[in-house]
Amino acid sequence: QWKQLENLYFREKKFAVEVHDPRRISVSRRTFGQSGLVVQTWYANTSLIKSIWVMAISQHQFYLDRKQSKAKIPSARSLDDIAMDLTEMGTPKVSKLVTLEAKNQLIMASNGSLISSGSQDSEVSEEQKKEKIMELKKKEKLLQEKLLQKVEELKKICLREAELTGKMPKEYPLGAGEEPPQVRRRVGTTFKLDDNLLPSEEDPTLQDLESNFIIHQKLVEAAKKLASEPDLCKNVKKKRKQEYADAVKKLQEIENSINEYRIKCGKKPTQKSTLTLPGERIP
């Protein structure tokens, strides 16, 4: 009986029917153990085997449609109505099974099964499809969130590069109709220490003081350039002037330390800061 059917399938020249028979116990290849599953097999050429399989699938679909019709329609119908319904339901399914090979949708050229033909009696397969769809949607959401995070990181990197080079890189991600932001180049990144400026004194203490003086001298020049930058708001300009004044004061203190050490060692004092920054007056 159809209710005992487990599967219909063909593999090249073999057509097989799997049914549940509680009266017989055999070793099943599907479970590798004792079960009531019986496999009936026939062999013929590939085209004939496939035709038999298509007819068997169609007959099984007719059984399912008839079962559903009985459940939905409480009253008896005429033979003409039944014949009309069978024509409407059966013809598209048979034509679909015949043209499946050309469309390459469900049945492959050399094999097929009842499950792969899309039977409507498998509720488990529908549940699996729903679970798979939900799982794919979750993965899609996680990937979108990760993509947005990476885009934000790329924007930050491009902005840092634009501040250093003064030019926005072409890799900056832009949305539809979005204009790239205007970024001002940071002043002070072009200052580099000259290796020839480092003194070569025999005294290591004096050499450390001289090196410290050269480094702070470059810091003073950078602070001066920042303080003299045009188009600054009042608060920023005041802050940069104060930073410049602090840098000059620190440089003078380092020079005083150098002169005190030179006098202690019996050497003449220097006036490096006054020669480097002549006439500087900070209000």
Automatic annotation (TrEMBL):
Subcellular location: Cytoplasm
Residue stretches making up the FERM domain: 1-67
GO biological process, one term: establishment of epithelial cell polarity
Coiled coil: 126-153, 237-264
Family matches, as InterPro entries: CUPID, FERM_domain, FERM_PH-like_C, FRMD4A/B, PH-like_dom_sf
Pfam family, one: FERM_C
Predominant place of localization: cytoplasm
Keyword entries, A-Z: Coiled coil, Cytoplasm
PROSITE patterns recorded: FERM_3
Protein name, UniProt field: FRM4B protein
Gene: Frmd4b_0
